[in-house]
Write a structure and sequence with these properties.
Number of domains of chain A: 2
Catalytic activity (chain A): hydrogencarbonate + L-glutamine + 2 ATP + H2O = carbamoyl phosphate + L-glutamate + 2 ADP + phosphate + 2 H(+); L-glutamine + H2O = L-glutamate + NH4(+)
Subunit structure (chain A): Composed of two chains; the small (or glutamine) chain promotes the hydrolysis of glutamine to ammonia, which is used by the large (or ammonia) chain to synthesize carbamoyl phosphate. Tetramer of heterodimers (alpha,beta)4.
CATH architecture of the largest domain in chain B: 2-Layer Sandwich
CATH superfamily of the largest domain in chain B: ATP-grasp fold, B domain
Helix content of chain A: 10-25%
EC number (chain A): 6.3.5.5
Strand content of chain A: 25-35%
Family (chain A): Belongs to the CarA family.
CATH architecture of the largest domain in chain A: 3-Layer(aba) Sandwich
Radius of gyration of chain B: 29 Å
Radius of gyration of chain A: 21 Å
Number of strands of chain A: 20
Oligomer: heterodimer
CATH class of the largest domain in chain B: Alpha Beta
Distance between the termini of chain A: 74 Å
Shape of chain B: globular
Helix content of chain B: 25-40%
CATH topology of the largest domain in chain A: Rossmann fold
Structural class of chain B: alpha/beta
Keywords (chain A): Amino-acid biosynthesis, Arginine biosynthesis, ATP-binding, Glutamine amidotransferase, Ligase, Nucleotide-binding, Pyrimidine biosynthesis
Shape of chain A: globular
Number of domains of chain B: 7
Number of helices of chain B: 38
Largest interface: A-B, 60 and 64 residues
CATH topology of the largest domain in chain B: D-amino Acid Aminotransferase, Chain A, domain 1
Number of strands of chain B: 39
Strand order of the largest sheet of chain B: 14-13-10-11-12-15-16
């Protein structure tokens, strides 16, 4: 690239928000058009994990950290088989990456996977806009598309489906069951219902001697119990929990049998619904790796990874009675008092709204996997005594 | 968990004088902490010997002791105040060491004082190298990550050679065991070097043992700032990546926040290790800093060290993130937990989170090697910088270029104006860049321009390839600017996004800076201002802490009240330090109280002025004309502007005054024309002539011929210096014509821009400093300081006393009249500082500076009057009469009419000699002279001069001795005056040593003194040592040496150098000797007590009202 042509060689791109605001920048990754829900993520590290997190399916992710791509792309850090974000919005993409594990550049990866992105936009202005107006639909148009009439582009954005009411888990989950073997001695078997599971989650369980049978989102109660599980796990995933009727019904079956149960993120919302609580869409969600969550049972604060646009509507200040016995809110986000965890008092089940598997993010909440194993252990011991 | 109820009073120890490695950041931390503790209803007792700090303002603590920070004095304070707790983690190493000493002596236990913030055990684990290795090993067991640098212990050369193989090859570090100060250690790059260094090391070691350690030079270097509460909640406030890889002290490195080249996996491992370390060390509440080295080839992590306290890095991290570490550490220390403390910036979210940044912060160190030409200027693991500038941008290039212009050093910003070098020059440039020095990045850029490849740059410097690429990016933008047919909006916006200043663009396009600016404004390319909000805009920020960026949307909010913009002083440097920040902070406080909206502009992360709490709005920006004009523009869009204050921040804002005014910016206070009048010798001479005031003969020269003629006319010795400098930069006493020629040759660079001033040098004169306020009609004499050292030593480097100890009412009257005449003649509205010399009976005017001086905080504290606050008010139109009526100034009298029983304050300068070595590892010359070289100062205050003086010495250098050997060698003119104090020393039991002449006089007066050899006489025939050798051997406890003029001066300096090297008190005037004797007398009789500033002040106010 010669110096004089640096600016001339750029391909223009435009980001159009559903409320009409536009941001102009340069094409990044694949050229073309993409629409989805614009959300912002505040993590300063972990773009590779974010991109491959199935929960971001159909979302245009705005990175608040300006420099993205500095460490390139490696083969160890993806959280699933592909990039899921529908579009990527960054300010200053790396021109050259630097890391001993890097295999290729991020831009090459985005292009190879057909992910349309935009760079050079005022991501802070965009974030403030989303914070004030809430997450909304948006489109990225690059190359020839960027030159199109803005009104026409806006119409394309507005014709895209809404996130509220979207049932997306089946789109991202595995279609075939597979097994993640325990690392070291096998202690437990867990059936993990894949609603958009991240690779780190079964790995964290495997590290604790759990053989994880990952099942498709469409798995039936029979499928779950066919693996003779010591515990059942419901994963994270994209979409509106209000649509996840199949998963809710499946979970109620598990609750009725009092099999130890653990849910993460979408899995927490499913547990909320199974217990009879409602769920609602947050204005702009929690997406980042610096969120303070208080464990109400110990009073300890953990810094946690979040990626959720919906939340459970449960009372913070008292124990609730449900068809499955008493339940309490076990974790709360200190920033905004959003429910971050549920715990049943009469059955071996609990869930958290955030990501103890932490990829990307801090490892403060890894103890929850230990809680799950000790829950399974207790039930096993009781079973042996009985 | 709420606040502890068992602590009602707490003693906070400050960090004392500003020295290299321990600077203004501890005033920032300490001030925050004291305020928080006071707000929590605790009685705060503070000790700090440094008067130029905000923390020692009487409002900040309940009882403020400006006393030496030594275990002896702090024990007296504890005995008097009986605090419940001692918080030692906010005053740097000084506070920590003092607290440990008080613990070990049993003082804390005896008085029932609890150490809070960090336990003795935790401090020991963090600080002791061996214990810390154990910590790292335990952490490795727990987390599976982190290790100490690998090492092998060797007892023979065979062991050593085998050890290298075990460590994986060269280079290796050789550290002989049990040698003093690390003697004999070094890097071995091959077997020859290894045999030499290790051979010597084995011989030097009393146990014939060397430690062979793997070299981690060139590894990536990171720091994490962590906080932990009593509930074991831990947060990582900030990650910092050093652009300069391992081998350069982090204080001397260009550093970047957040870390730029770590994946999440690697970052989380560092975080896990950091948390495990803080737990293992046992820092129960508060902050700590942990440093890591990461092997760029495979990610291996070595944990280098941790500081179990608030540090320079934590101040930087606080400013970089908006997370006030010291403030929160203070709350944690008294029992709060992180989730109970609100985040100041969002007000809605708690402090138990980790800040996330949507910008990049770059810190660039500021060095002062020009002040120490003999010092080795290569950067090593010993810190050498005297200050730093920080800049914030939306990307790295913007932040880096802003930071480089913020350090205000010629040549620091990348210069693309000249032709690039040729490919033949690349190897040479890379070889130069391979050695870390101040300005290495400029050399790297020169190599890039000359055609070096990214790989070559990385190989030579080990700077991470991502950073190297960013430098290439900057070069490409520069090339684009150069090649473009014309400056378009798109191109300018692109250049601005990467941090190019108008001046840089002007250099590239061969235009004037103001032309570039006009074009840019015409094209509508202007910066916006974004907020530092701790959360990347996830939540709304309530605190306007702003930085510029060339982005789309600005966050400056409209306001109603008129704004006063206060320009700060930029990075600390010798001659322009914390004292100026003090005045700026005071202006913020006073003007905010008077109903203005205060807007602070500064780029120094160490200071109180850049605390978002200090002003109503903070712009963390470079102090250049361009950056300030843009802020003024942005603020003028937001609401009315009452004016810009330039007279408080030292030379940096003063230098901008005229250009700002020329651009239509309203400057309040003393006008830029008046400032120029005082700087311009001809015009100033006319002011003096009109007032009938004598000044030493002087002249202004633009060439050697002119200089020669002027010097001959005045008569040697003369004092020469470039005009327009602060801190006496380049100033020298010249004794003859050849020296004058040499001087002009050396300072050709300075002279080309500004003329050289040549003054008569007044030998044997008393130098006097005056700080005064003038409102156009009335003069308020703030204080009169009498220097203890003779004239000719820079006022910043000499000790002084206030009130003056030998001047009478008549002298004060003359000083007052002269000061008033000059203030009126120049047209001062606010502060003025004038230096006088009293030679014989003539009062000469040496110079006048119509601005806040370095001594304003000292004067304010010594007289209990807030001069800087008053100056800020006068700048905006208040009169002295009004301020007297308000109570800000005393109703009657002023600093020239202090009551007889007013306390005496002594200021002593602190020199950085011991930090510097020449390239051969020898100490640098410690000659005091007209060029300022001190980094800081202390104050001793007591009811009598002798005691105050003793305290100032104890605060600066350690206590005066009360017994032992005193060496006396004085000039002829001082011999009479020496006899009584010398006799007093003998009576105190001192053994006297003297050179032959002085010994003879003493003998005639019945005082026995042992004759010792002068340095010029050399060692005696039987190996009798010279006085300098004796000092080096630690045989002398006190030195009295008054200079004799040219020849004698040099011998004295040898003695002085030795004294500094050994840390022995050295008195250079008979006044100082007399003072010291009074001090020793008071010390011996156990009469030296401690007294809070508040007590001194109330006594003074009472006396004034009598």
């Amino acid at each position: 690239m010669t110096a004089t042509t640096r600016t001339a060689e750029r391909t223009p791109a435009v980001l159009v928000l559903e409320d009409g605001r536009t941001f102009r920048g340069q094409a990044y990754g694949a050229r073309g058009e993409t629409v989805g829900e614009a959300v912002f993520s505040t993590g300063m590290t972990g773009y590779q994990e974010t991109l491959t997190d199935p929960s971001y399916h159909r979302q245009l992710v705005v990175m608040t950290a300006p420099h993205i791509g500095n460490t390139g792309v490696n083969d160890e850090d993806p959280e699933s088989r592909r990039i899921w974000v529908a579009g990527y919005v960054v300010r200053d993409p790396a021109r050259r990456h630097s890391n001993w594990r890097a295999r290729r550049s991020l831009e090459d990866e985005l292009t190879a996977q057909g992910v349309v992105g935009i760079s050079g936009v005022d991501t802070r202005a965009l974030t403030r806009h989303l914070r004030e107006r809430g997450a909304m639909r948006a489109g990225i148009f690059s190359g020839a598309e960027a030159a199109a009439d803005e009104a026409a582009l806006l119409a394309r954005v507005r014709s895209a489906p809404q996130m509220a009411g979207a049932d997306l888990a089946p789109e991202v989950a595995t279609t075939e069951p597979y097994v993640v073997p325990a690392i070291g001695e096998k202690r437990f078997t867990v059936a993990a219902v894949d609603l958009g599971i991240k690779g780190m989650t079964p790995h964290r369980m495997a590290q604790r001697g759990i053989e994880v049978h990952v099942l498709p989102a469409t798995a039936t109660l029979e499928d779950v119990y066919a693996v003779a599980p010591d515990g059942v796990f419901f994963s994270n995933g994209p979409g509106d929990p209000a649509t996840a009727d199949h998963a809710v019904a499946l979970m109620r079956g598990v609750l009725e049998r009092s099999t130890p149960l653990f849910g993460i993120c979408f899995g927490n919302q499913i547990l909320g619904r199974a217990l009879g609580f409602g769920t609602f869409k947050l204005k702009y969600g929690h997406r980042g790796i610096n969120q303070p969550v208080k464990d109400l049972t110990t009073g300890k604060v953990e810094v946690t990874a979040h990626n959720h646009g919906f939340a459970v509507d449960a009372p913070l200040d008292r124990v609730s009675d449900t068809p499955y016995g008493r339940v309490e809110v076990s974790h709360v986000c200190l920033n905004d008092d959003v429910v971050e965890g549920l715990r049943l008092l009469d059955r071996p089940a609990f869930s958290v709204q955030y990501h103890p598997e932490a990829a990307a993010g801090p490892h403060d909440a890894a103890y929850l996997f230990d809680r799950f194993t000790s829950l399974m252990n207790t039930v096993l011991m009781e079973g042996q005594r009985a | 968990m709420p606040k502890r109820t068992d602590i009602q009073s707490v003693l906070v120890i400050g960090s004392g004088p500003i020295v290299i490695g321990q600077a203004a950041e501890f005033d920032y931390s300490g001030t925050q902490a004291c305020r928080v503790l006071k707000a929590e209803g605790l009685r705060v007792i503070l000790v700090n010997s440094n008067p130029a700090t905000i923390m020692t303002d009487p409002e900040i603590a309940d009882a403020t002791y400006i006393e030496p920070i030594t275990p002896e004095y702090v024990e007296k304070i504890i005995a008097k105040e009986r605090p419940d707790a001692l918080l030692p983690t906010l005053g740097g190493q000084t506070a920590l060491n003092t607290a440990i000493a008080l613990h070990e002596s049993g003082t804390l236990a005896a008085h029932g004082v609890e150490l809070i913030g960090a336990s003795v055990e935790a401090i020991a684990k963090g600080e002791d190298r061996e214990k810390f290795k154990g910590v790292v090993e335990a952490v490795r067991q727990a987390t599976g990550h982190g290790e100490s640098a690998r090492s092998v212990i060797c007892h023979s050369m065979d062991d050593v050679l085998a050890g290298v193989t075990e460590l994986g090859g060269y280079p290796v570090v050789v550290r002989p065991s049990f040698t003093m100060g690390g003697a004999g250690s070094g890097f071995a790059h091959d077997e020859d070097e290894l045999r030499r260094i290790a051979g010597q090391g084995l011989a030097l070691s009393p146990t014939t043992e060397v430690l062979l350690e793997e070299s981690i030079l060139g590894w990536k270097e990171y720091e994490l700032e962590l906080m932990r509460d009593r509930n074991d909640n831990v947060v990582v406030v900030c990650s910092i990546e050093n652009l300069d890889p391992m081998g350069v002290h982090t204080g001397d490195s260009i550093t970047v926040a957040p870390a730029m080249t770590l994946t999440d996996r690697e970052y989380q491992i560092l975080r896990d290790i950091g948390i495990a370390v803080i737990r293992e060390v046992g820092v129960d509440t508060g902050g700590c800093n942990i440093q890591f080295a990461v092997d760029p080839d495979d990610g291996r992590i070595v944990v280098i060290e941790m500081n179990p306290r608030v540090s320079r890095s934590s101040a930087l991290a606080s400013k970089a993130t908006g997370f006030p570490i010291a403030k929160i550490a203070a709350r944690l220390a008294i029992g709060y937990t992180l989730d109970e403390i609100p985040n100041d910036i969002t007000e809605e979210t708690p402090a138990s989170f980790e800040p996330t940044l949507d910008y990049v912060v770059v810190k660039v160190p500021r060095f002062a090697f020009e002040k120490f030409p003999a010092a080795d200027s290569s950067l090593t693991t010993t810190m050498k910088s005297v200050g730093e500038a920080m800049a914030i941008g939306r990307n790295f290039t913007e932040a880096l270029q802003k930071a480089l212009r913020s350090v205000e050093k010629k040549g620091a910003p990348f210069d693309f104006s000249g032709a690039p070098g040729t490919p033949e020059e690349v190897p040479g440039l890379l070889a130069t860049a391979a050695v870390p020095t101040d300005g290495r990045l400029g050399t790297v850029m020169a190599a890039i321009r000359a055609g070096a490849t990214p790989e070559q740059v990385f190989e030579a410097t080990r700077i991470d390839p991502w950073f190297v690429d960013q430098l290439f990016l900057i070069r490409e933008v520069a090339d684009e600017l150069a090649a473009a047919e014309q400056l378009t909006a798109e191109l300018l916006a692109e250049a601005k996004r990467h941090g190019f200043s108008d001046a840089q663009i002007a250099g590239i396009r061969d235009l004037r800076e103001d032309v570039v600016r006009e074009v840019r404004h015409a094209l509508g390319v202007r910066p916006v201002y974004k907020t530092v909000d701790t959360c990347a805009a996830e939540f709304a920020a309530r605190t306007p802490y702003l930085y510029s960026s060339y982005d789309e949307e600005t966050e400056v909010t409209p306001r109603e009240r008129p704004a006063v913009i206060i320009l700060g002083s930029g990075p600390n440097r010798i001659g322009q330090g914390i004292e100026f920040d003090y005045s700026c902070v005071h202006a913020c406080f006073a003007l905010s109280e008077a109903g203005y909206e205060t807007v602070m502009v500064n780029c120094n992360p160490e200071t109180v002025s850049t605390d978002y709490d200090t002003s109503d709005r903070l712009y963390f920006e470079p102090l250049t004309l361009e950056d300030v004009l843009e802020i003024v523009h942005a603020e003028s869009q937001a609401g009315p502007i009452a004016g810009v204050i330039v007279q408080l921040g030292g030379q940096t804002p003063l230098g901008l005054a005229q250009a700002l005014k020329d651009n239509g910016v309203p400057i309040v206070g003393t006008s830029p024309e008046a400032i120029n009048l005082a700087e311009e010798r001809g015009a100033f001479g006319r002011v003096l002539a009109e007032a009938g005031l004598p000044a030493p003969k002087y002249g202004t020269a633009f060439s050697f011929d002119e200089a020669k003629a002027i010097a001959a006319g005045i008569g040697y010795p003369v004092m020469v210096r470039p005009s327009y400098v602060l801190g006496g930069r380049g100033m020298r006493i010249v004794y003859d014509e050849p020296s004058l020629a040499e001087y002009l040759a050396q300072h050709a660079g300075l002279v080309s821009e500004h003329p050289v001033l040549i003054d008569r040098f007044l030998d044997d004169a008393i130098e006097i400093d005056v700080d005064a306020l003038y409102d156009g009609t009335e003069l308020y004499l703030g204080g009169v300081m009498e220097h203890i050292e003779e004239a000719g030593i820079h006022s910043g480097d000499s000790a002084c006393a206030l009130p003056p100890i030998t001047l009478g009412g008549h002298d004060i009257k003359r000083l007052r009249a002269s000061t008033e005449a000059i203030a009126a003649g120049v047209g001062v509205r606010g502060l003025i500082n004038i230096q006088f010399a009293l030679a014989g009976d003539i009062l000469y005017v040496l110079e006048a500076n119509p601005r806040a001086s370095r001594t304003v905080p000292f004067t304010s504290k010594a007289t209990a009057v807030p001069l800087a606050k008053a100056a800020a008010r006068i700048s905006l139109g208040a009169t002295i009469a009004e301020l007297r009526a308000e109570g800000m100034l005393p109703a009657h009298g002023d600093g020239g009419t202090l009551p007889l029983d007013a306390p005496i304050s002594v200021k002593e300068a602190v020199m950085p000699w011991s930090r510097f070595r020449d390239v051969h590892g020898r100490g640098v010359d410690t000659v005091l002279g007209p060029e300022m070289r001190s980094t800081g100062e202390v104050m001793g205050i007591d009811s009598a001069f002798g005691t105050a003086y003793a305290k100032s010495q104890a605060g600066a250098y350690g206590a005066l001795p009360t017994k032992g050997r005193a060496f006396v060698s004085v000039a002829n003119r001082d011999k009479r005056a020496m006899i009584f104090p010398a006799r007093a020393l003998v009576e105190h039991g001192f053994e006297l040593l003297a050179t032959s002449g002085t010994a003879e006089v003493l003998k005639r007066n019945g005082i026995h003194a042992t004759v010792v050899r002068k340095q010029i006489e050399g060692e005696g025939p039987n190996g009798e040592p010279t006085i300098v050798q004796l000092i080096h051997e630690g045989q002398v406890d006190l030195i009295v040496n008054t200079p004799y003029g040219t020849g004698g001066r040099l011998d004295g300096y040898d003695i002085r150098t030795a004294a500094v090297a050994r840390g022995i008190p050295c008195l250079t005037t008979v006044q100082a000797l007399a003072a010291a004797v009074q001090g020793i007398d008071a010390l011996t009789r156990g009469e030296v007590g401690v007294r809070a500033l508040q007590e001194h002040a109330s006594q003074l106010v009472e006396a004034r009202n009598r």
